[in-house]
Amino acid sequence: MADVILRNITKRFGTVEAVRELSLAINDGEFLVLLGPSGAGKTTTLRLITGLETPDAGSVMIDGRDVTHDPPGSRDIAFVFQQYSLYPHLTVYDNLAFPLRSPARRVPGPVIRKRVEQTAELLHIASKLNNRATRLSGGEMQRVAIGRALVRDPSIYLMDEPLSSLDAKLRSELRIELKRIQLELGATILYVTHDQVEAMTMASRIGVIKDGQLLQLGTPREIYESPSSSYVASRLGTPQINFLPARLLSDVAVPPETETVGIRTEHLKVGARNGGRMVGRVHRVEHLGEQNHVHLDYKGEMLVTLADPHQQPLEAGQEVELHLVHPLYFDRAGQRIPAVIH
Amino acid sequence: MTAALAKSTAHSIVEASPRSKAVAGSLVILYAVITILPLLWIVATAFKSQSDAIAYPPKVIFEPTLEGYVNLFTVRTRQTPDFIAKLPPPETWYDKLVRQRDMVIAGPSKVVPRFVNSLIIGFGSTFLAVFLGTLAAYAFSRFRIPLADDLLFFILSTRMMPPVAVAIPIYLMYRQLNLTDTRLGMILLYTAVNVSLAVWLLKGFIDEIPREYEEAALVDGYTRLQALRKVVLPQAVTGIAATAIFCLIFSWNEYAFAVLLTSGEAQTMPPFIPFIIGEGGQDWPAVAAATTLFVVPIVLFTVLLRKHLLRGITFGAVRK
Asked: Which CATH number covers residue B163?
């Protein structure tokens, strides 16, 4: 395992700047998640680290060595692709052994067998080793795909949305397993996803990326609690953070320069009318079982928050009092303004 | 009972009704009969005597003889019955058969060397065309090649002219290069014609193989050529087999250039067969025998590769 450093990486495809001046340091043993929408440059970043693409500017260092112009095979990286990762003409065993049989590595036969069996054990696919890769379920295929990376002991594992093609149940299972495996192996992983739950649950640190630029880097807690911009704030949290124009809050104290106020569900307390000045109307209630999504109309803006159906049986049309508790403030450019102490 | 009843009355959208199945089946059988009939006629004619072969109305039932095959493989001379009577008794069944017609075998005919020519030229050019085509198709499919579309069109355009249009220039070229009537010349010519087809067909197949497969291999420490061999080719087998069959059928059956450029040493079967002459004109049973033998390698080759053709596209490990 080793650390990976990207310095001012830029990559253009024609006129499109896929990655712009991106700098990032991945520490040894860290599970770093790059979170961003599709087209944000996440996959390109991974491909630049592997050497499947060459950057137009900037450099890639792995374990203190400049590998910017090295071919992919000599970088000691294992890559899990989003899909298309298993060779349909090979068995599960041969798929797993494939990276070890590479002529660049020359791993002796018995070692290959041992590594493949260990990995299969780790991923609970030991009984499938002799199956053809095409005869597996989606979850098993994805395990094998991850296994193809795990059989090696590379400097870093790069994973490109490895769980995105799976259904929700499998995704949550593999999420937990992946985190367990990472802790067991002490592996360095750079993981790319657009799924905030994956980012929140697995990451040691999250990097939020948009339009080829790294917007913020920090622990999941930091990113969630003190996002640097309204965009970063909107990437995390379900239901999504509400944005209210500050002018609608004339009767609530906000820092100067505030253009919008970001209100997560925990920033918004809903109660019966009791003389408070912020009054909204319940527009719609979505029952999700143990929780309700409450859509509130406040001066023509929609706010979504959570409510406990037993403690707060709200109904559409009802007028309620709203209280803001330490919301987030953003200026005209969407940058966060540190909260003033009330 | 009830299940069977339900099955017979229910109208499924995805499963064809028994009647439409029957209609489709009879159409297929009808088509098979129409296409197989000429072939059967040729196979039958090969076993007819010369007079049965040209009888009118055509004979469906006849006494089979191997004369056609014997005539195909031998050169014979006519002798007087007295001369034949003085000869020692015939050593083989075909000697005997020939003597019954007042002839003796003077030697083997040229059919075997012609057939060998066809095999060498057909399979040689097929191998070359598929080999070059695979490499070119891979390059077109994977690398950013300047003017790739124009190059591909140019490659295809070599196929647009009828052979007659280029026959004379090619003849002159070949005469200058001493390639007329050589196997090498024919292999090169058929390869040149087939390679365009091979590039286009194979490019389609290779485009279908996700590049992530090779990229995974590259990251794992394989070189590009090793990745091509271990990852791309096994998955392109279906396409390669189909392409090889098309190429072989073309070069195997090619007539115009073969007539023009070969006469002796390198002559293939197509120009040879029509000129199998017997006494008093075309020896139809021998022609039919030659044709029958000529079809065999193509049928064998296709049957051998059928597994790959029918296996279809196995991108099952891919979730699209």
From this structure: 1.10.3720.10
A98 Cβ under 8 Å from any chain B Cβ = yes
Contact by Cβ (8 Å): A272, A323:
no
Chain B residues with CB under 8 Å of A99 CB are 220-221
Q: How far apart are the first and last CA of chain A?
A: 47
pLDDT at A242: 92
Answer yes or no: do A83 and B219 touch at CB < 8 A: no
**Would an 8 Å CB–CB cutoff place B213 in contact with chain A?**
yes
How large is the average pLDDT for residues A302-318? 85
CA distances from B91 to B99, B104, B105 (A): 11, 12, 12
Q: What is the pLDDT of residue B130?
A: 96
Q: How many CB atoms lie within 10 A of CB B139?
A: 14
Looking at the structure, tell me whether residues A201 and A158 fall in a common domain: yes
Confidence of residue A308 (pLDDT cuts 50, 70, 90): confident
Q: Which among B72, B90, B109 is the end of a domain?
A: B109
* Distance in Å from the first CA to the final CA of chain B: 42
What band does B317 get if pLDDT is binned at 50, 70 and 90? very low
Alpha helix ranges (H) inside A207-266:
220-225, 230-235
- Give yes or no for a contact between B192 and B132, defined as CB atoms under 8 angstroms apart: no
Per-residue pLDDT tens for A216-257? 999 999 999 999 999 999 999 888 999 989 888 866 778 888
Q: Do A88 and B218 touch (CB under 8 A)?
A: no
Q: Which residues contact B153 (CB under 8 A, 6 or more apart)?
A: none
Q: What chain A residue is nearest to B211 in terms of C-alpha separation? A: A84
Unique residue bearing structure tokens 């051998």 = B304
Cα(B218)–Cα(B137) distance, rounded to whole angstroms?
19
For residues B242 and B213, give the distance between their C-alpha atoms in angstroms, rounded to a whole number: 22
Distance CA B69, CA B49 (A): 11
Q: Which of A182, A203, A235 is the last residue of a domain?
A: A235
Interchain contact, B218 vs A83, CB within 8 Å: no
Q: A84: pLDDT confidence band, cut at 50, 70 and 90? A: low
Inter-CA distances, A291 with A281, A308, A310, B88, Å: 19, 5, 9, 110
pLDDT reading at B314 higher than 50: no
The C-alpha of B313 sits at a distance from chain A's nearest C-alpha, in angstroms, of 10
Query: Stretch B156-162: mean pLDDT, rounded?
Result: 83
Which tokens sit at B150? 């124009």
> pLDDT for B239-278, tens place per residue?
898 899 989 999 999 998 999 898 888 999 999 998 887 7
ipTM above 0.95, yes or no: no
Residue B317: closest C-alpha in chain A:
A134
The domain that contains A256 carries what CATH number? 2.40.50.140
